[in-house]
Amino acid sequence: MQHLLALAAVVPAVFAQTFYGCYTEVPTRALTGSLLVNYTTMTVTECETHCTGFSLWGLEYGGECYCGDSLSQGSFPAFSTDCAMPCGGDATQICGGPNRLSLYGTSEEPPAFTPYPHGGEGEVTATEYVGCYTEGVGVRALSGASAVSASAMTVDGCANFCLNSGFLWFGLEYTAECYCGSALDVTSANVTDAECAMPCSGAPTEVCGGPDRLSVYQWI
């Protein structure tokens, strides 16, 4: 089951194409059809033109353009704030971010994506609150994938980011930080919920941990 991140997206200036949002990169690249790098003149239009004949194209790190017809396994919707770098050829447009693609395509529907296997038995459908926990001693309590979003972090956003990254445990810390893992580090200790009282940056009515404190959940 695919879990899309329910995150607000700031849509940059577009032309005839569809903007799908900000997507993660993977070690083997999310789009592997063709590549154009130009950090001084890159625009959304330049990338679209270069990728003529492909159904998908994405811009990364201000000046990199990638083309393809499908996403590689492990690429999935990320936090909109992860894509915040201006294009080298037009500072009013957004060209992805570090290891993040501003993804476009020819279809009105977003492309299918295949998350990393999460290692659980069967399909997980819900999350369960575990409690407020300290960070590990000298290590992260959850040492898998991580993400930071100063304006869009929510419990559901962190939940889906971690599940798509292949992890069933996730924790939110200090308003804007999301950490994923397979289990809590043994040096992480359960504390009172009062120590996890900071509002989430993307949902002030939700709680996203505290200073060195994680609001911990598990997919079940």
From TrEMBL:
What InterPro entries does the database record attribute to this sequence? Sialate-O-sulfotransferase, WSC_carb-bd
Q: Which SMART domains match?
A: WSC
Instruction: Decide whether keyword Repeat is in the record.
Output: yes
Which residues does UniProt assign to the signal peptide?
A: 1-16
Report the superkingdom from the record.
Eukaryota
The protein's UniProt keywords, in alphabetical order, are: Repeat, Signal
Instruction: Give any Pfam family that matches.
Output: WSC
* Chain ranges of the WSC domain: 16-107, 126-220
- The answer to whether the entry has keyword Signal is yes
PANTHER family to which the protein is assigned, alphabetical: SULFOTRANSFERASE, WSCD FAMILY MEMBER CG9164
What this protein is called in its record is WSC-domain-containing protein
**Which species is this record about?**
Canariomyces notabilis
